[in-house]
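Example (one chain per record):
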Amino acid sequence: MSRFKSARVRQLIFGFYMSCMMSLLMSGVITFMNTGLDGQFVFRWLRAFLVTWAVVFPLSARQ
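Predicted structure:
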């Protein structure tokens, strides 16, 4: 694998992990602040996470 491809793969992997962690934490905090903790919290959090991750990953992995 060329050096350019290797660097690009590392950048995509880092962007994937960074966007997952950032989206997971921020969507959880904001969902908790807006709706509180009840029986449906996890489902609302997962839904918010998927939406935010779909926005954050392309933005963090681009270049």
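Caption: The mean pLDDT is 90.
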